[in-house]
Design goal:
This is GDSL esterase/lipase. With about 400 residues, the chain is α/β, with parallel strands linked by helices. Helices cover about 40% and strands about 10% of the residues.
Length: about 400
């Protein structure tokens, strides 16, 4: 009798374990399917600036914005940026710039990026070098202050309560980063050699790492980090630093500049791996936009584009780019102000917008390649960016 009772108890225990295991498995696999990000907070440079520099130093001039917004909208492009498509796919409104006080709603996030931003603070003014004084460390300070003040304002109530994120959004949000390109060009502007530029990259990435840790300390857990693009394929580098024929690849890109960008990206990936060890609660996705951008430029016609390294909006020169007469530049002729650096006829078939940034069509194509995780480490789609690299190992340990 006792033996039968023991068997019965053992059987109940086995069944209970199976039920619990099955429930856990369904719960985990269900939670894997999609992350719900109630907000996005972005830090970066002009590749993701939705109005920060314009709010601080004057609007990006027309014809910027002509394709989608039909007028200047703070973006250095004819239309939307990758960060805009990220917001769209998450069901959120386009991010308003933190510095833009006009009609801004930050309920579902904020954008701290400004064009010309670097990771390391620059020892020059924006008028001297073109680099923004709002470096990544300053953006983090702005974010931290925004988080603190948002909580206080919401507690006080009133009209502004509805324009700021809920407190829990800061831990549930997606944190996106796209910065580093200007740190590389800063060295070349000082006549550094490629080896000298490479030498200071560890310091740049050390400061980048500190900001990620800072955001983590503020409660951020989901990070989506873009590496830097093919610097040697941008007209503003090709025009300013002419290369020997042997230094150019078959697609018209400067190999030395692309090599330093690739070196930066390798070191960035190492930093990300280290951050995963130091921040076990973080889900950090490294996104290889370099490969996607270079593939598009080097196979432009295959993907329905034209003239990979020629700017759409510009004036003169081999690349339709003049550093002193950039996109939107005007000139007074017989008392009338005319635009001398205007848009090409059809931006939708061009990749490079103004010699530095990409067209909306290119940004959309790039987003479509990265959104499913094909160029990510770990290979999670954007909708699963809240999961860490070792999610499957954790799942099996749980069961």
């Amino acid at each position: 009798m006792k033996a039968m009772e023991l068997v019965g108890e053992k059987w109940i225990e086995i069944v209970t374990c199976l039920v619990i295991s099955t429930t856990l498995m369904r719960s985990v696999s269900g939670s894997e399917s999609e992350c719900i990000f109630p907000a996005i907070f972005n830090l970066g440079d002009s590749n993701s600036d939705t109005g920060g520099l314009s709010a601080a130093f004057g609007q990006a001039p027309p014809p910027n914005g002509i394709t989608y917004f039909h007028s200047p909208n703070g973006r250095f492009s004819d239309g939307r940026l990758i960060i805009d498509f990220i917001a769209e796919s998450s069901g959120l409104a386009y991010l308003r710039a933190y510095l833009d006080s006009v009609a801004s709603n930050f309920t579902h996030g904020a954008n701290f990026a400004t064009a010309g931003s670097t990771v390391r603070p620059q020892n020059t003014t924006i008028s001297q070098s073109g680099y923004s004084p709002i470096s990544l460390d300053v953006q983090f300070v702005q974010f931290s202050d925004f988080k603190t003040r948002s909580k206080l304002v919401r507690q006080q109530g009133g009209v502004f309560k509805e324009l700021l994120p809920k407190e829990e959004y800061f831990s549930q949000a997606l944190y996106t980063f796209d910065i580093g390109q200007n740190d590389l060009t800063a060295g070349y502007k000082l006549n550094f050699t490629t080896e000298q530029v490479k030498a200071y990259i560890p310091d740049v990435l050390g400061q980048f790492s500190n900001v990620i840790k800072g955001v983590y300390g503020e409660g951020g857990r989901s990070f989506w980090i873009h590496n830097t693009g093919p610097l040697g394929c941008l007209p503003y580098m090709l025009d300013r630093y002419p290369m020997k024929p042997t230094q150019m690849d078959e697609f018209g890109c400067a190999k030395p500049f692309n090599e330093v960008a690739q070196y930066f990206n390798r070191k960035l990936k190492e930093v990300v791996e280290q951050l995963r060890k130091e921040l076990p609660g973080a889900a950090i996705t490294y996104v290889d936009v370099y490969t996607v951008k270079y593939t598009l430029i080097s196979h432009a016609q295959k993907y329905g584009f034209e003239q990979g390294v020629i700017a759409c909006c510009g004036h003169g020169g081999k690349y339709n780019f003049n550093n002193t007469e950039r996109c939107g530049a005007t000139k007074r002729v017989n008392g009338t102000e005319i635009v001398i650096a205007n848009s090409c006829k059809d931006p939708s078939v061009r990749i490079i917008w103004d010699g530095i940034h990409y067209t909306e069509a290119a940004n959309k194509w790039i987003f479509q390649q990265i959104v499913n995780g094909s160029f990510s480490d770990p290979p999670h789609s954007l909708k699963r960016a809240c999961y860490g690299k070792s999610i499957r190992r954790h799942k099996f340990q749980l069961l």
